[in-house]
């Protein structure tokens, strides 16, 4: 419910979606989406790639055990009709769909799920989905080569699967992305699979022109009655924002992701204003501080940085309002977001006072590692430098490529860095990144260690009551805010332009471009009838 | 002629070896790896266990000499290795992208030659005239314009305003989709060819043998077509040959802008994601292509002017 309210506040998009829902979906036509994060897809083997770009096509071609429901704001069952939890919350018995057919016409059974998860845990390969499947008992043994099959997965019959977990977590958050897509057991390992991938999704593979597009046709035996609506989907690779802009205005594409500059331009254009759809995505942008660097080991210094930077000014003027001010770690669309929390106000005097109390009355100098990213990189650092200078803190900028930045962060080779990190959809997993047992190389990038925080997170993991868990996670989130291991900058506002003839767009807070395409349809005003 | 050809081909071997070594060394010292690029869109933390396994699987932690040895051994058999990203053979990836790039390059150069050479000729035949001034202003503009900006202008005019052509994409590989990227890519070689042709023709027009031809009563048309054009061709051909390499380099920007599925856009994504086998393979193919074209141009000199064979 809370999610819905936030989504409503998030933008004009919901109105657009609501209008669409009120209309009768039209069958047929072609949906022309864009993949905006580069000029290629990484691989046609979706198990091998964690990139957002690849999940765009995977949403049409493949299916996982769960799927993200944007209306509910959480993952829901997809390839199973129901799940029964037993064994103290560790055993999940799935009643699988008996009407899910792969694109080669074969019906999906429990064997396919077991085969796919075993494949992902193959210790001789490096499938990124292993971090999710590892939650199943016996998966780690397969990964280490100590077992051939995951012991925690048991086929009861063709359409009943038992899954035993190692921790009491909600498996929905682990098995909803394309990284854990279900492949047909007899086809998935074959050489030709990369050339013609087979999935369970609403559209089947037709062609992939590397560097240009992927084309998919309607799968008539898709298990959701009457869906998908469209006959065809064409996903064009368009990494250049300016080219996308021309193509969108020229009605050659149906969707286009907008950057800050285009966001302003589209808002100002009466013909385009109505095409904007926006949502608060589960990404938090922040500056991480290394406690091994002496000044940052003092909480007062870290708080001083939060007081010294006028984040609102940067968001409004530089990011052009294409972000929401961060009030803590968990984003607006998180089920554990506490709307009562207020961000650190801009207060240079207080920052100076805190620095003096910490023994730095004249400030200090630090090195800030950054990429060139326009929303959470060099431009933001450059805007913050004079603000920090005002309280006596000097900044030495170290600019690296985004790929290098990820490595620098994981190795802890920094004094400070600026980054964008997924902080959802599972609030517990997002906060667990700050648990002292989480290695820096995993996601505890600021090497945060706090026993009180650990205690609250552990308690949240053990409780069976959903409301109590939320309460505990909010407490942990508040504690993190007080300890300020990072400068809380903003939550991403994802913005997409959608042609008026494309209906059914979902406000997916995990990634706006990841649409459940079976729900999309085009009316008869589409130029690609 | 055969020994001249063999000599030219043999001369390219050290260049290829130097390039192979250079590419390998460069991408061994460049920071970042495919593993670090996996998490660069911030969608979630990269699993440390997967990172370690990936490094082992791809041999990223092996000493440089081991990696180089294995790379060279594979290269000798024509194997460019397997892409870190797609897990496909690099040769297969390049093969899929080569034809669109060749289409684009040849179309761009065809445009450059078809417009640039006549423009240069006309300008040289009427030096100081309005035709000369306008064509040289066009040529300088063509050389100075940024590809990205010019491409956007063409998109705006021919796709958005006039609606004649699609603004992006490969379509079915036909002419309609090729025109805008080819003109964008061809505008600076066109400008350069116009200037080169003009300079070459102006120089030849004042040469002794041209004066002799005129004094013998040969018509101006015959002087130009028989003496001037033929002699200018060697210079123009050199410029065209060199432009192949330049155009191939510039195709990176144009392919990305127009979502053209060539090896330029493959190279960009491979570099950004540190897909080293794909980067090495792509650059090597570009270099081999450049060397092949230039060798062919050298051989053509011999056909046009036999004196060059014996030089």
UniProtKB/TrEMBL annotation, chain A:
GO biological process assignments: peptide transport
Pfam family, one: SBP_bac_5
GO molecular function terms noted in the UniProt entry: peptide transmembrane transporter activity
Classification via InterPro entries: Peptide/Ni-bd (IPR030678), SBP_5 (IPR039424), SBP_5_dom (IPR000914)
Alphabetically ordered keywords of this record: Signal
Signal peptide extent: 1-20
Subcellular location: Periplasm
Cellular component GO terms, alphabetical: ATP-binding cassette (ABC) transporter complex; outer membrane-bounded periplasmic space
Domain Solute-binding protein family: 74-438
Family: Belongs to the bacterial solute-binding protein 5 family.
Record-given protein name: ABC transporter substrate-binding protein
Origin species: Bradyrhizobium uaiense
Lineage: Bacteria, Pseudomonadati, Pseudomonadota, Alphaproteobacteria, Hyphomicrobiales
UniProtKB/TrEMBL annotation, chain B:
Cell membrane keyword on record: yes
Domain ABC transmembrane type-1: residue ranges: 98-301
Keywords, in A-Z order: Cell membrane, Membrane, Transmembrane, Transmembrane helix, Transport
Membrane-protein topology: Multi-pass membrane protein
Highest taxon, organism lineage: Bacteria
InterPro entries in alphabetical order: BPD_transp_1_N (IPR045621), MetI-like (IPR000515), MetI-like_sf (IPR035906)
CDD domains: TM_PBP2
Gene3D superfamilies per record: MetI-like
Location in the cell: Cell membrane
GO cellular component annotations of the record: plasma membrane
Functional summary from the UniProt entry: Part of the ABC transporter complex GsiABCD involved in glutathione import. Probably responsible for the translocation of the substrate across the membrane.
Family: Belongs to the binding-protein-dependent transport system permease family.
Protein name per Swiss-Prot or TrEMBL: Glutathione transport system permease protein GsiC
Lineage: Bacteria, Pseudomonadati, Pseudomonadota, Alphaproteobacteria, Hyphomicrobiales
């Amino acid at each position: 419910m809370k999610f819905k309210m936030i989504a409503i506040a998030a933008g004009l998009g919901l109105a657009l979606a609501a209008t669409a829902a009120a209309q009768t979906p039209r069958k047929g036509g072609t949906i022309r989406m864009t993949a905006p994060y580069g000029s290629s897809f990484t691989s046609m083997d979706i198990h091998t790639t964690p990139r957002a770009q690849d999940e765009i096509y995977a949403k049409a071609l493949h299916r996982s055990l769960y799927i993200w429901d944007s209306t509910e704001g959480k993952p829901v069952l997809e390839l199973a009709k129901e799940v029964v939890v037993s064994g103290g919350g560790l055993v999940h018995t799935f009643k699988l769909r008996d009407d899910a057919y792969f694109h080669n016409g074969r019906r999906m059974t429990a064997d396919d799920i077991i085969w796919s998860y075993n494949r992902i845990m193959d210790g001789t390969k490096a499938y990124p989905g292993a971090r999710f499947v590892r939650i199943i008992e016996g998966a780690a043994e397969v990964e280490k080569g100590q077992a051939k099959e995951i012991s925690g997965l048991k086929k009861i019959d063709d359409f009943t699967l038992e899954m035993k977990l190692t921790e009491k977590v909600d498996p929905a958050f682990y098995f909803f992305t394309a990284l854990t897509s279900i492949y047909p057991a007899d086809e998935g390992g074959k050489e030709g699979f990369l050339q013609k991938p087979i999935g369970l999704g609403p559209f089947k593979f037709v062609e992939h022109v590397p560097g240009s597009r992927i084309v998919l046709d309607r799968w008539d035996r898709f298990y959701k009655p009457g869906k998908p609506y469209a006959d065809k989907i064409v996903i064009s690779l368009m990494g250049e924002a300016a080219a996308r802009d021309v193509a969108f205005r020229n009605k050659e594409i149906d969707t286009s992701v907008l950057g800050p500059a285009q966001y302003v331009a589209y808002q100002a254009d009466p013909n385009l204003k109505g095409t904007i759809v926006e949502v608060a995505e589960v990404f938090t942008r922040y500056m991480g501080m290394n406690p091994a660097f002496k000044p940052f080991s003092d909480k007062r210094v870290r708080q001083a940085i939060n007081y010294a930077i006028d984040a609102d000014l940067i968001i409004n003027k530089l990011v052009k309002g294409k972000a929401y001010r961060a009030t803590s770690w968990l984003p607006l669309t998180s089920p554990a977001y506490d709307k009562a929390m207020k961000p650190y106000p801009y207060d240079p005097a207080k920052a100076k006072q805190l620095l003096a109390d910490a023994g730095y009355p004249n400030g200090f100098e630090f090195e800030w590692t950054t990429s060139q990213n326009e929303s959470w990189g060099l431009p933001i650092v450059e805007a913050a430098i004079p603000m920090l200078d005002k309280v006596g803190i000097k900044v030495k900028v170290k600019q690296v490529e985004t790929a290098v930045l990820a490595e620098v962060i994981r190795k802890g080779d920094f004094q400070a860095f600026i980054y964008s990190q997924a902080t959802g959809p599972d609030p517990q997993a997002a906060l667990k990144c700050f648990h002292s047992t989480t290695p820096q190389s995993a996601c505890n990038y600021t090497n945060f260690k706090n026993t009180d925080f650990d205690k609250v997170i552990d308690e949240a993991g053990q409780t069976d009551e959903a409301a109590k868990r939320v309460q505990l996670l909010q407490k942990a989130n508040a504690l993190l805010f007080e300890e300020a291991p990072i400068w809380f900058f903003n939550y991403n506002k994802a913005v997409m332009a959608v042609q008026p003839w494309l209906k059914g767009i979902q406000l997916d807070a995990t990634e706006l471009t990841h649409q459940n395409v079976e729900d999309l349809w085009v009316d008869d005003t589409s130029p690609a009838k | 002629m055969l020994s001249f050809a063999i000599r030219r081909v043999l001369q390219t071997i050290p260049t290829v070896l130097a390039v192979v070594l250079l590419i390998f060394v460069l991408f061994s010292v460049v920071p970042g790896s495919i593993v670090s690029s996996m998490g660069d869109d911030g969608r979630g933390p990269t699993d440390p266990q997967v990172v370690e396994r990936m490094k082992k699987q791809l041999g990223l932690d092996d000493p440089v000499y081991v990696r180089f040895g294995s790379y060279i051994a594979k290269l000798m058999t024509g194997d460019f290795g397997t892409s870190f990203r797609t897990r496909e053979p690099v040769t297969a990836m390049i093969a899929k992208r080569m034809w669109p790039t060749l289409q684009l390059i040849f179309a761009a150069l065809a445009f450059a030659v078809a417009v640039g050479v006549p423009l240069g000729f006309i300008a040289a035949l009427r030096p100081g005239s309005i035709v000369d001034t306008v064509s040289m202003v066009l040529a300088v503009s063509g050389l100075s314009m940024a590809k990205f900006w010019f491409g956007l202008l063409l998109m705006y005019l021919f796709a958005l305003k006039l609606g004649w052509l699609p603004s992006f994409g490969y379509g079915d590989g036909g002419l309609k989709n090729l025109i805008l990227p080819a003109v964008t890519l061809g505008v600076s070689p066109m400008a350069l060819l116009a200037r080169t042709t003009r300079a070459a023709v102006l120089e030849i027009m004042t040469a002794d043998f041209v004066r002799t031809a005129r004094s013998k009563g040969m018509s101006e048309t015959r002087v130009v077509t028989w003496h001037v054009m033929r002699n200018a061709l060697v210079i123009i051909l050199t410029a065209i040959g060199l432009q192949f390499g330049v155009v191939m380099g510039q195709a990176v920007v144009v392919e990305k802008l127009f979502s053209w599925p060539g090896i330029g856009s493959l190279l960009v994504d491979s570099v950004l994601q540190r897909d080293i086998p794909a980067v090495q393979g792509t650059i090597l193919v570009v270099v081999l292509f450049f060397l092949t074209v230039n060798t062919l141009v050298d051989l053509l000199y011999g056909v046009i002017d036999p004196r060059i064979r014996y030089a």
